[in-house]
Fold these 4 entries.
Entry 1:
Amino acid sequence: MVEATRRDAGAEERRYRKLIENIRDTVTVVDASGTTIWTSASQRGDLGYRDEFWSGANLFDLVHPDDRAEIDDGLLRLLSEPTTIANGEVRLREPDGSYRHVGYHAINRLSDVDIGGIVITAHPIEHEVRLRSEREERRIELERTLAGRARFIADLSHEMRSPLHAIVGLAELIEGSDELPPKLERHVRSISRESHALRVMLDEFLDFSKLSANRLELLTEPFSPGAVVDAVAESQSPVARSKGLDFHVEIATSVPLVVLGDEHRLRQVLVNLVSNAIKYTDAGHVKVGVSQRESGELEFRVTDTGPGIPEESWPGLFEPYHQARQQDTTKGTGLGLVITKRLVELMGGALNFETSGQGTSFRAAIAFPEARRKSDVAVAQPLQQRDEVEGSALDVLIVDDSEVNLMLAHSQLEKLGHTPTMVTSGASAIELLASRQFDLVLMDWHMPHMDGLETTRRIRANEPDSNRIPIIATTASVMAGDRETCLAAGMDDYLPKPISLSDLGAMVARWSPDATAAGLEPEPAINGLEGLINELGDPEIVSSVIGAFLAEIPGWRESLTSGIESGDFDRARRAAHTLKSTAQLLGATELSTQGAQFEATDEPAQLVEQLPTLVAALDAAKARLQTVQSELAVEAGREATGPDTEERKTP
């Protein structure tokens, strides 16, 4: 009986051994140091070592040196937490010195008297690694292609915007003349209309390129949603009425007065939808409105009584270059709705439509947070208050190397009632400003010898803080990050070309001394702790803001480093984007600048090179903000115990 039991046990042991020897995965048992206790035949065969090699061989010695840290970490976890399972990928050395990729799982069975070791199952993953490598190569190549296309479109946009700026501006000036014969007036009006159409097409191609390359950046500023709807209606209603259409505006009383978001992009969405509605409606009416849903989202609606969208066009309506009707090829690029939908989604919303044979309705639902700070709500002042201070003549210095641009800006400013002075270089601007006071400077970015950025830096270095002159960037560079680059150099605002008379008039009025005196000074984003403290008025709140920033630093650092190490460069750029804007808010200028440069970099190799500089800036900002937080805690303590005789110091 005993002999039979032994035979049965031996048969069972042989059965399990054969089973393990023939499964695809290899099985190895090692002690805590990695020395082999037992290994399956498949393991011995896969790596190509002779059977006698495994007698006392150390499995960990076969691991590639670059992967050894992973093994050590996994072993430490297994020994300190025996119930855990370690898994990952490593490279194991073969007899010829080459390495094979394997995936593994390891479990601690040292306390099991029948096993007495760490059980490691592994399987070859060469095929998976090769596929992954090929996907990564394709991704990198796609990134390079998109970056190259974005650069090409950016260069093309810049080169086209400069002459277009002259055409739009000069046509606008001529069109306003009282001396034109009727025939020439019609021609000039046609030039103006077609040049504006060309500008719209150029903007659409550029926006589509930015969206495709994930390079379109949204601003977060206070604005009035009702005012945006009114402004869109004001610009589009003349076209509707010229077609005999009724134009209606509906703004619900529940809509917040001021919200935070990107006013320009929302306006672009509504202009696209309203202009489309007018374009395809020949009789009846067009309506644009905004209301607030119970969920808090704002719903922007554009409806018309046109013929509707053919059902066969619905599936591809938001596809690039899609035309809903055959005759649409003469009415645009086929990118308007694509851009509109992506902009709405980029703002965290959704765009939907309903259509029939008697009209179409587009609804964009976007959750804009309501603005609550006093300085944010101040942007909703009645527009007529601003109009009252727009009549004062200003001395404006124009800095541009293009004679056409100088002539155009000079004529536009004169028409607006201002006194322009022109110089053709940054050096001339610096020299003139040293001896003469101006109310405003219009600064071109791209100039030979000394560009507008460097010119601005030198002006700022030489002027007293009490006499800071507003400098406005005027440039055909409109890619993501260009506005931030100008502001980082010391400019106060950004006006992209082509610049219309109304655009220029609004910008000059915004920065005029009269507007400042009337309490209507522009409110750029708060840059720096002093502005933040003055804005919030409570050291404890500011300290909490800093604390939240400090708490996020480990996550940002991990996203940056692991993104670079794993080749997920988009993840690293997204972290840099968030760092850039938040650092700007807290006055960490160097960190903000490094973040902007990192985000704007396309080449992976350059990102790897820039990472240490960005991380160093992050560490420096962290140390400074920790000091500031301590000072604020002392300040809050003084305020809590009552006023003292010391003057308050603002970090």
Entry 2:
Amino acid sequence: MTPQPEHANADAALATAQWLSAFAAALQRRDAQAASGLFLPDGQWRDILAFTWHILTMDSAAAVRAKLAETIERVQPQNFRIDPKRTAPRWVHRAGREDVLEALFAFDTAYGHGSGVLRLVPDRNAPGQMRAWTLSTTLQELRGHTEAIGARRPTGPSDLRDFGAENWADQRRKAAAYADRDPAVLVIGAGQAGLSVAARLGALGVDTLVVDRNARIGDNWRKRYHSLTLHNEVFVNDLPYLPFPPTWPVYISKDKLANWLENYAEAMELNCWMSTEFVRGRYDDKAQCWSVELRRADGSLRSMRPRHIVFAIGASPIAAKPDLPGMDSFAGTVMHSESYTTGTPWRGKKALIIGTGTSGHDVAQDLTAAGAHATIIQRSPTYVVSLKEAQNVYKIYTQGIPVEDCDLIGTSYPYPTLLRAYLAATDESTRNDKKLLEDLAAAGFRLDVQPNDYGFQLRYLERGGGYYFNVGCSNLIIDGKVGLLQYSDIERFVPAGALLRDGRIEPADLIVLATGYLSQQEVARRLLGDEVADRIGPVWGFDEGGELRNMWRRTPQKGLWFHAGSLAQCRIFSRFLALQIKACEAGLIPLAMPESSQAPRISAAVRA
């Protein structure tokens, strides 16, 4: 909490209530001009479904005015109020600013109930006045279609002792078999993304089947390399409805998480078909549903006609394997990092790891720990941050605020303010990591350092990689215990290893391609065809409106959705994806995103 001198005695709750009252009154009069006048000229509004049925950023008071004018009549927003169940209004330091009054509020619309975050700052052009720097409005619940949780949990015959009838286990087996019906939603992928959205949809009464080609739920983590542990802290990683036990360690191992996912699916009564491959699918415009084929473990094919398909496959299940000169001649073993499990078989052997993202570093460190001689090959500059400093972007989750409030605050940043927050966090971490970065540069490691650097978070959101949290491999590189080669110094690969441009050969018994994965658009291309893939366009990375492309929202293809990201992103955005699917099922919104609803362009100056 950081009170400012000129407002130290101000009643934060009163200031918030006054602003919300003025905003609500303007909306009641359908006066978008007056409502936008409560913002700074460069004030911003992020709407998550509540007004627009979209995820949008408006980056100026003028853009706020235009979008309000377009939506007020239909949405009928009202009853803006401080939410007594949320963290109280308070002075905070946000995105490099220390004069911020942050308040969590509730409101209602014609479609449901919402929550939001308001950030007020002094208007330097109007002394004594507080104006909105940022506003977020988030749909939390659909009117008439609430989640069956808490006091609304199901009751009925299944809770009674009905002797001779089907019991709970019988009902679960029948529900999961889909012998006499098709699901409304088919989710591809039983990792944290698929399970989280299936849990949300189940609570909304939407019949959902999850399929995965792995044999067990959690295998997407269980089968990864032996030493893998999550790189962010337990406090941020809960899944919907079922938080981790308070006894769990700060950093969760991959097998512990894998087993938790398996238990989560059972506890949440999710319908999952494992060892099941999605073979192909096409959209039937006349029937307004998909026609898909699934291959079961016994080789049989099952045809289904779900109304929705959700790709919940992480970054992508298709490994990117670049065509490297001479690699076909290499006499040793070549594998992609997705297939790497342990360095034990390579003790005393020489290994080359191509790629300096998280997987490349972790594989090199694991091989070294196993007694192999590992050399990492750098193809492009990489952003490096220490593990401790990387947690700064999540530190609100350790400050005693309820997770639900942290999630609301975390999703409240419009794109321009998000950049400002990342910039402030990156400046701090770079200062604190100064010696690590200097020592890495001295060892010949090429660091990705940009002017006005926004750090690892923006790299993750823009391209899903390009960074490494140092959990020790950087120190091994600095100390010479892990070798370092620049790819530009390699002429080609030969049977014995890598032929360098100076004529030397870097010998190897193993080459690991830590070269990432193809995009989700390419997954859609393989499974749904070129026409669908071209229609939707790129998936992930920012669009011109400052939001992730095709993620967690309707796409240009009817009934096709994408859900991915960290455990926190899956927890948070599974709610919004499920609400939209439920709204489609209820006839409130169309299946595809109308062209007129596309995001307004964020100004070039802001994006720069």
Entry 3:
Amino acid sequence: MLSGIKATVFMNRYIIISFLSLLCLPAIAQKDTLWKKNLKEITITADRIEVYTLGNRIDKPDSLLQRIFKSSPIGSLLDASSGLVIRNYGPGILATSSLRGGNAQQTAMTWNGLSINSPVNGLSDLNLVPSFLFDAVSVLPGLAGSLQGSGAIGGGINLNNSALKKEGFSTELMQTVGSFGTYTGGLKLNYAKNKWSHSTKGYYSKTNNNYPFNNRAESGNPKENLTNAQGVNYSALHQTSYQSQKAGVFKINYWGTFANRQIPPTLLMESSTARQFDNIQKTMLQWDKSFKKITLKFHSLFQNDYLKYTEKEMDINSISKSIFITNDAELRFKSFKNSTSSIGVVQSFTKAKVANVLNTGTTTLNESDRNQIAIWASHFHQILKLRTSISASLRLELVDTKFLPLIPSLGFKTHLHKSLDIYGQTSRVYRIPTLNDLNWVPGGNPQLKPESGWANELSMEFNQKNERIYLTTSLTGYSRLITNWIQWQPVSSQIWSPVNIGKVNSRGLELRSTLKISLTNKLFGKAGLNVDYTKSENMDASNPNYQKQLIYIPFLKSSSFIAFGIKNTIIMLQGVWVGKRYISSDNLDSIPHYGLLNLAINHYFNYKKTSSTAFIRINNIFNKGYEAIVWRPMPGINYEFGINVIINR
């Protein structure tokens, strides 16, 4: 076990030293370019997050990592490529995320620009989101509340599907086989002609999850196999797009998820009969129309969530149903020569019903609804003489019958040198309580106040490239103070209730670096490193846990990879290090750090219009025993074999 940790630490240190050494080299000669090419171009067609988020760093998974994790849930990809801390209850079971010291409800997930977090509990289960279905994935730490709205205190995860650009027919088939009875499969069918394009994607995953582990809760740490851990997941995504110069661009999107999962026992339980069934349906309509200096956008999302959780031994038979409707309208125009402005309105309606039927026939029922409307305005401007771009946004939101305080943000980006940029932002962030927070029976607290605060960050980014070498490195410092932080606490032996705990101060440093060296057309090397230091403390002086680190927030998390390409073969070592995490608010109890090292080998074949990839992944190669959530063991060494075939016509 210790050897796995030492190997990961050694690899991370080696890459850090290598990058620092490279930064000390003389500047690599390159052609001088106009500074404005390194700034965001003024556009009226891009997503508003791309246009008006100047001070944010955007983390996008490396293309090699996207290929390696194509068969995996999105949480596995982001764990390996960003500062997200994944709280994983086990493969295929619930997985949530934490960004910059926040909790799972403070990470906003969007699909094609619209929020898809559950309106009932405020969460998105990352194990129900297959990487295979999406064309682009990105993480925006510290996303401004004026742009995203409620729930983005820690940041946002953006999922996107783009319209097809090439005419013709193409298909992609993926099939993998892995340890512990794991099978995944994926199929893509794409067709585009003239003004129409169609894309249909299907994904299937099945696992037994009967992996061995050492039970540290028992004397002698006996080896046992995980039980009641089987799961299946079916997902489908379809997009039809019509593009006309006169009518604009129309898109119809559908995303459906069907999952049936057993919930295994913790190390403190002898057995479990828990099971969860999810049925999530999303339908989205999009219309964009550009004129000479004006763009109109109207996007609408209808989301229907159904979740059933049963546990015979504890007499739980809980059913949660919710309907979530969002309408988003935007008018974007060029206000001045070097400026773009937008005004818009977002309206949403939620209706939820949560019922628990006991064996005795007793039923507890919780019905609630919510209306929200937000008006926002944003402005982007380039100051050519100062080599600087600035953006400002303002949002006013009405929740049911109550106005929230104005939500402003201000960001900038300055091109100091042909290889050096500096950018930052200050913004107000907030999160309104979820329907469960307010109305859960028993324990809901209708008197909860919204979480609110200010976030500030500053980044420096260095880029250097020539024909052989590409190096990019950024360092970000941030600070965020939130008041009325919502935390669930026990009020009796069986009932928990949420309360506002006062102030939480989160601050930290984030390092991102990527290096690519192309020796020949058939030989290259590539490495990446992410390091996140996070201090997230309770700053309520009247609280007994004053200045204590919040639970499940590690001080240090890093992820790294190093890859070599030789002709048609790529070999990659990829590691993750997660520091010690406290599991009690008084910081007296904790679970230890862990380091994992994974190996992936991909070999590519090309024949006329067909390309294929055969791959093998060995995860946790040092067979490290670890827990991402206390008392829930994760798998040791495991394998995955697969093939991916793409045919273009």
Entry 4:
Amino acid sequence: MGEKKIIGVCVTSIHKIAVHRLLTALGAEAEKHGYYLHIFAPFSDLYHRSKSDMAEQRIFELIHFDRFCALILFSEVIKYEPIQEELAKKGIEAGIPVLNIKGTLEYTCNIQYDAESSLADIIRHLISCHHCKRINFMAGAMGHPVSERRIEIYRSVLKENGYPVEEGRIGYGDFWRMPAREAAKEFLASDLPLPDAIVCANDAMGIAVCDYLAERGFHVPGDIIVTGLGGLQEREYHLPLLTTAIYDPEETGRVVIGQLDGMLRGEIPFDQDVAIPCKNVYTESCGCERHDKKKTDNRLVNLFSMTELERAYRHNTYEFTTYVNTETTLQALAKHFPDYVREPGLAGVNLYLNAEFAALADLPVISGSNAPVILLKHITEDGDSLPLLPRTLDELWTLPEETFDNAPQLLTIPLNILDEFFGFLTLEYHGDKILHECLFELVMTLNHLLDNIKKRMVLLLTNQQVNDVSEQTIQSLAEIVEAKSEFTGLHVKRVSEYTRILAEAMGYSPDDVNTIRIASMMHDIGKINIPAEILEKPGKLTPEEFDVIKTHIKEGERLLRNAPGKIMETAKTIALEHHEKWDGTGYMGRKNWEIHLDSRIVALADVFDALVSKRPYKKPFSDEKAREIIVGDRGSHFDPDVVDAFVDTFDQFQEIHAKYPD
């Protein structure tokens, strides 16, 4: 790894723009200082503790903390506190510094933003630069520590400037839009004179207040100034552009990596807390900037371009889904996936399946291990893809030198549907090039494709198990019927194999070959009600006895009539028609194509076995003699095409006859 040092990063919700921007800035700063980021990132914030949350958080179980020189937690977006605490504990036990962004945990470096100082500066700015005297303050939720702290700052700044604190000018907007509109409505309905300015404790409330004032005919900032706090992305596209204090990603990256450098050099204790100043932005809603139509147009053009990129990529993923779902196999996924990983700005992609999934798909796994199996390794620049191979977690996190050369960050994302954990995706990338919304689209698409593939594999396995049981049951039943005659022996087995050979030669699909092979075993099922003395009679049958024998075809059709499924439907047809002849002289007089092809095939297979087998009324013919008889009946007893297939595969008939002798 040379001089590179790996920082582990645990975060969620990376498709959200604020998280993405901070990760990008952190990655850029880390690269300058010779660090490599290995990011573990569920898309869920893990708050709801749903089945999906439980599966996604398993990505953190893959972490080898001893591989890292430090751990960075994005506690603000990891909404489940026990996960935060467990990750911090493991980092501390590994002896590495743990930096906790916008969170508070023991024995870690808790990094907070000093929004309160910025709030005080905004209020002072309104007083000194815009000469505001009547300033209303909209806090968040009543009793919330952040709300109460910011109310005290509001009171303090007014007092330091000699302004009275009027309690009627304090409202609560609960940190979101609808309550903020109600609080603004109360401000306007108050007996107090209209405010010069409304200072809001976050941007969401500031935007809501601006919109409500505009609806009521007030001009911002001409009639009332409005300010926010926090740097919400929406404010960048709002008119007027909201004056606020932003959490500056670049400054955060500099502070976090600088703090980490000091810790690793032994100059700063691991548990020293840090406050990052917010960046005040005085713009249109306070009157410090006039509305610039050109800037607005540029922002809208950029937004449109981004939307178009996301729309185009969404169309690509739909196409990808169609291709894979046509086959619904892991092979199809591995084949088409490399064509759809260019757009998000990735340098390399690895797709891993957990051992259980891999075993279900008959992929090579490490015996007695829960190690993942790599389904695909793809480098986007040269298009290389490696074969399917098992990987231990030790191998997985031992990063080769070329990984650092390709990209400064490695992102690991869980793949799951609800509580079904399929595996994970690792992405080598540059943070400033990746489109996280496209990445979200890609991962969600992969999740659904893997879910479809797994369901198909389970269904095929279940069907195979059912078919195996059905085949065994059918064969046993057919043998019970045939056992009424001591001379028939393995007739059922041989006829089914002869039928298989002919069906393959006639171009049947593998599924249809299997269907007719199993169904053929029941061709004589109707004999179950034929008296044994007639079946075993050594001499020629009387006309009356032959009429009794002929009833077995309709009796077989009757027995199978109400049985469900393709195999039983095929068996019913064969049972009824396998004594029909091509020229129409069979039991029921059907001829040519009136007779189903399945029945024409089984008719030849049945006759061949009767010819080469010992019967009460005859000795067995040789295979060659049976062949001669069947060829002689081409176009009279048998379908000419079926006879031609028989001639072409005659050596296989001989092999089956030799393999299953009576």
